[in-house]
């Protein structure tokens, strides 16, 4: 009886120890396990942890979530429209790699900053050219470039490291290494027909074609911004908020 009790206790201790070790994984280790997992399942953006969605909204406002995957009992991997990746655990806590982001998309990467941290040249430009507009989000890229989102509606202003204006875009930013801008008048008829049929009263604001052939189209609807993806033949693939 004592032997049975001893082995039962030993098994319990071993199991608890294994579980403890699993919960003590570093962020680096958990990220690597998510990356290498062979049981990833696609998940809808609406089903992602709220903390992750909030993080993307605040830190990657110039792009959108293109793909999202879950690894059971590990966490989530999301691939952004600029091809950067973000990882979080099951609860939605953002995993921090000790060397920074795992991947660096062709548009580069940066960090969110408070609007109050923007150079005076940028805030002066916004005040002068967009009277009454509010700076909602801001970030600075590693290159020094600033992205500034204002509520006019959803404009993203680009400035160089000295605060000099470069360009304005709307809904999302697309860089040339990622793809090429598309003249709205040349969009495939299959795309415009789909938008007309499925988004009543929508206005197409911006479009570009990624290097893999996919079309990304930004539209304004009564519900706000929508990012719609189509394959190179104009077949609908996804819609993102």
- Work out the radius of gyration: 22 Å
Proportion of residues in β-strands: 25-35%
- In the sheet with the most strands, the strands line up as 5-6-7-8-9
**How confident overall, as mean pLDDT?**
88
Instruction: Tell how many strands the DSSP assignment holds.
Output: 14
Summed up, the domain count is: 3
**Largest sheet: number of strands, sense, barrel closure:** 5 strands, antiparallel
Poorly predicted regions:
5-22
Secondary-structure-derived class: alpha+beta
State the order of secondary-structure elements, H for helix, E for strand.
HHEHEEEEHEEEEEHEEEE
Count, helices: 5
CA-CA gap between termini: 62 Å
User: Which percent bin holds the helix content?
Assistant: 25-40%
Shape: globular
Itemize the secondary structure elements and their pairings:
Blueprint lengths: L1 H22 L3 H10 L4 E2 L7 H10 L5 E7 L3 E6 L4 E5 L20 E3 L7 H10 L5 E7 L4 E5 L4 E5 L5 E6 L8 E3 L7 H10 L4 E8 L4 E7 L2 E7 L5 E5 L1
Antiparallel strand pairs: 1-2, 2-3, 3-4, 5-6, 6-7, 7-8, 8-9, 10-11, 11-12, 12-13, 13-14
Could you give a short description of this structure?
This protein has 241 residues and is an alpha+beta fold. It has helices spanning 2-23, 27-36, 50-59, 120-129, 189-198; strands at 41-42, 65-71, 75-80, 85-89, 110-112, 135-141, 146-150, 155-159, 165-170, 179-181, 203-210, 215-221, 224-230, 236-240. The strands form 3 sheets. The chain has a 5-stranded antiparallel β-sheet, with helices on one face.
């Amino acid at each position: 009886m004592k032997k049975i009790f001893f082995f039962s206790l030993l098994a319990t201790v071993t199991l608890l120890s294994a579980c403890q070790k699993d919960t003590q994984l570093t962020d680096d280790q958990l990220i690597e396990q998510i990356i290498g997992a062979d049981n990833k399942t696609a998940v809808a953006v609406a089903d992602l942890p709220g903390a992750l969605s909030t993080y993307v909204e605040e830190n990657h406002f110039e792009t959108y979530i293109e793909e999202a995957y879950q690894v059971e009992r590990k966490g989530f991997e999301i691939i952004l429209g600029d091809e950067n990746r973000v990882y979080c655990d099951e609860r939605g806590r953002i995993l921090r790699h000790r060397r920074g982001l795992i991947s660096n998309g062709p548009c580069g990467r940066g960090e969110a900053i408070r609007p109050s941290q923007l150079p005076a040249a940028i805030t002066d430009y916004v005040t002068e050219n967009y009277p009454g507009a509010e700076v909602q989000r801001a970030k600075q890229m590693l290159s020094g470039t600033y992205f500034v989102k204002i509520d006019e509606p959803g404009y993203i202003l680009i400035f160089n490291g000295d605060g000099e204006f470069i360009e304005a875009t709307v809904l999302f930013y697309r860089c040339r290494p990622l793809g090429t801008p598309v003249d709205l008048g040349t969009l495939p008829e299959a795309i415009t027909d789909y938008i007309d049929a499925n988004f009543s009263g929508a206005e197409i604001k911006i479009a570009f074609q990624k290097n893999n052939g996919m079309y990304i189209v930004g539209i304004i609807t009564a519900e706000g911004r929508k990012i719609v993806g189509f394959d190179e033949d104009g077949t609908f693939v996804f819609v993102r908020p």
